[in-house]
Amino acid sequence: MKGKRVRVEILCTGDEILTGKTVNTNYSHIARKLGEVGLDVAWGTTVGDDRASLLTAFRQAGERADAVIVNGGLGPTVDDLSQEVAAEACGVTLVLSDYWMQRMTESYARRGRVMPANNRKQAMLPEGAEFIDNPIGTACGFAVTIGKARFLFTPGVPREMRRMLDEQVIPRLLKLGGITGVTRLKRFHSFGIGESRADEMLAGIPGLAIDGEIKLGFQAHFPELETKLAARGATEAELDAKLAAIEAEVRRRLGNFVVAEDESSLERMVFERLKAGGHTLAIGETFTSGAIANRLAPLLGADTVFRRGVIAAEMTADGAADTLRAESGASHALVVLMQLDDGPDRPDFGATITVQIADENTAKGGGPVQRVARLVGGRDWVRTGAAELGLDCLRRHLMGLPVDERIDFERR
Amino acid sequence: MKGKRVRVEILCTGDEILTGKTVNTNYSHIARKLGEVGLDVAWGTTVGDDRASLLTAFRQAGERADAVIVNGGLGPTVDDLSQEVAAEACGVTLVLSDYWMQRMTESYARRGRVMPANNRKQAMLPEGAEFIDNPIGTACGFAVTIGKARFLFTPGVPREMRRMLDEQVIPRLLKLGGITGVTRLKRFHSFGIGESRADEMLAGIPGLAIDGEIKLGFQAHFPELETKLAARGATEAELDAKLAAIEAEVRRRLGNFVVAEDESSLERMVFERLKAGGHTLAIGETFTSGAIANRLAPLLGADTVFRRGVIAAEMTADGAADTLRAESGASHALVVLMQLDDGPDRPDFGATITVQIADENTAKGGGPVQRVARLVGGRDWVRTGAAELGLDCLRRHLMGLPVDERIDFERR
User: Fold this and answer.
1) How many angstroms separate the CA atoms of A175 and A178, rounded?
2) Looking at domain B182-261, does it have CATH number 3.30.70.2860?
């Protein structure tokens, strides 16, 4: 199942990337995806739409790497040079792919259009190249060998690149490395614990020790932390069996801090809980200025649950959630108020955040659930944290979990 | 004033960048900043915290480039290797900078702390290296010559890198290229015109033709387009004189589509207009779900103007702005309603957007100002566009400009 180490490089082309006009998110996407299946990137290169640079970059990568993913330069215009320079580096000519010409022609015809003449360029591939399918665009991929490395060419359009990476490129790289079986990425989204604490909390989980089969990783994007289990197995069934106990253990150790898993999100969990309970929600905000409503209300179907959002420059905590609940007619009211520090923005600028939740039970009982926390880290940071804190308190309340568990970002 | 062409490369180091865990925004920031002062980047390299890769990367860049900006690897931990590998590539040893040791010690002392022992590593520089000051961090920069290129080392912390780039690195590169004088970047933010149309609208402006002195560029970040004039002159006074007429012409040609200039923004322009007129504002939103309030309300001082935001799952256009204005007590009401297409999200998913503005005059006159537009491009795209459209209509209304000028993103 485990194969030999494949040295992979990523080579990004195009003036927009080279000049910084476009942030190179294609690079980070490719590198991350490779890491998740156990393939490590060893080198990254960026060059412009320039023949000499491309040729040098191809040759140098061909000396260092086993496999090179080239991204960009497959378009129909004259500054798209990947096929031409690949052919030059291989010492072959470009030949027309009748198959791709036909596919492009048919694709245009289906939309009632005639294919522009310059698209023909996109069907010109280096002689002997392996064809790599692009099911959603006119830039097909291809593979050739330059030096000692296999070069896999992908288009710069992110949507097309991402699909081809998953379906075409990664399987070829795994095969190249003699790596068989299936892979899976399990993700836990948490709020309230930093990367180093999560790392400690998950230390020594049995099964995580098996080298290379299940890999633990973290990705912090404040205010959340993503904990990732990248796993590989011979079959899906074997993966299920191997992962089940480890997933349960991760869930148990991260505890109440896990706000969602995989494709879900904190706001989606809140929405689903509200929906399942037949509840409706009103949100009151001050300095978060709509940021909370803006996460929840756009969810597909949220209009069945989301009743009203109110953003006010000033709101007093006293009875705020009860009043909002009564005025809106919603079953639940979430209010997030902030008392900001004075003075200009700075790294230790902070705020005291008051979260209040009212529902039918709190109205009968001792008044709304309340959580007060102090966050610091500049205006934007504090605002983002407050929105998350408010939603997380509501999630915890709806799930019957304690709303006042201390979080790492909090100052006392 | 114009010097020789300097071939600049950017070399980014660090496992976080190499593995895609962190998106490489440092690269794009550096490349863009260089472009703005007329220095073009010729090559970008990314390597991990790996001695052999770093050494190879330094040597190859030293053969190709005139100047190399190295980013990252100056931290206090063992995986920060930039100084060590730089010394190895130069064939020298590392020597302690007493000056930097003292600066770090004092900096810790000012905050009442003792400097950790491992910070000493950050004062070890290759023998003979030129010191580059870091006024806000413990990672100082330095410059050495490897091969035929001057290497300038900067820390990976974005805040520190950005400041050192402006104050230390770019002046050195300009000097290296024999480029004298001062530079300036003039920016216009517009809404409603695409890059290619803006390019046409600005064709043939006299003065833009002077090669290399004033460079026109665009940066699209939907829904806005940024039009940039990067200019160079012998003195500030000369720049003023040269730019004045061209700026005025750009402003005239882009016309009402310019929403803000330089550091300002659409929301700030709206806020300032409201404030200057002694007005207050209430905002009503449906599917934009607080996105409009979320742009305006967080501005420093906005609490003097922003009265209330209401987000509702459903709201009818009929009298909406008048009602909101009356209920909130604000002098102005902005309502943005959306009628979404049916079905799942897709690239041609769209919405019909109704913008309504009420104020004292419309209440006396023929009812609120109204603008209806259809946007397509998927749920998120449409939502972002609607928020911008709403704010822009308010800006136009406050400035006495037509609110119904057709925009490029609009479908009829």
Assistant:
1) 5
2) yes
pLDDT at B342: 87
Calpha distance A8→A127 (Å, rounded) = 24
How high is the pLDDT of residue A209? 61
Which of A42, A60, A379 lies nearest to residue B60, judging by beta carbons?
Answer: A60
Contacts of residue B30 in chain A, CB cutoff 8 Å? 20
Amino acid at B335: V
> Could you read off the pLDDT of A86-105 as tens digits, one per residue?
999 999 999 999 999 999 99
Contact predicate B315/B308, CB 8 Å: no
Residue with tokens 């300009």: B174
Q: Is the pLDDT of residue B208 over 80?
A: no
For chain A, domain boundaries: 8-176, 182-261, 266-411
Q: Which long-range contacts (CB under 8 A, 24 or more apart) does A78-82 make?
A: A79/A15, A79/A49, A80/A49, A80/A121, A81/A13, A81/A49, A81/A50, A81/A51, A81/A54, A82/A13, A82/A54, A82/A153
The secondary structure of residue B283, as a DSSP letter, is: E
- CA-nearest of A272, A276, A263, A273 to A189 is A263
pLDDT at A2 over 60: no
- Asked if the Cβ–Cβ distance from A290 to B287 is below 8 Å, we say no
* CATH fold of the domain at A266-411: Maf protein (3.90.950)
Contacts for A119 with CB less than 8 Å, ≥ 6 apart: A76, A104, A108, A138
Question: Which chain B residues contact residue A45 at CB under 8 A?
Answer: 43-46
Q: DSSP states of B322-349 as a string?
A: HHHHHHH--SEEEEEEEEEPSSS--TT-
Query: Taking CB atoms and an 8 Å cut-off, how many pairs form between chains A and B?
Result: 176
Cβ atoms of residues A388 and A295 within 8 Å:
no
Q: How confident is the model over B210-219, as a mean pLDDT?
A: 78
- B289 → closest Cβ in A27, A294, A300: A294
A31, B48: Cβ pair inside 8 Å? no
Using the beta-carbon criterion (under 8 Å), do A287 and B307 form an inter-chain contact?
A: no
B-chain CB neighbours of A384 within 8 Å are none
Instruction: Please name the fold of domain B8-176.
Output: Molybdenum Cofactor Biosythetic Enzyme; Chain A (3.40.980)
Q: Is the peptide bond before A223 cis (omega within 30 degrees of 0)?
A: yes
Contact A53 B42 (CB under 8 A): yes
Give the predicted TM-score (pTM) of the model.
0.84
Beta strand B350-358 with B332-340 is: antiparallel
Do the chains contact at B311 and A298, CB–CB below 8 Å? no
- As a whole number of angstroms, the distance between CA A202 and CA B200 comes to 58
Nearest Cα to Cα of residue A43 among B240, B60, B33:
B60
Q: Which candidate from B31, B56, B308 shows the least CB-CB separation from A311? A: B308
Q: What is the DSSP letter of B121?
A: G
A313 to B291: CB separation less than 8 angstroms, yes or no: no
Q: Which of A13-17, A362-366, A395-399, B127-131 has the lowest mean pLDDT?
A: A362-366
Q: Which of A222, A294, A379 to probe by mutation at the B interface, max B CB count within 10 Å?
A: A294
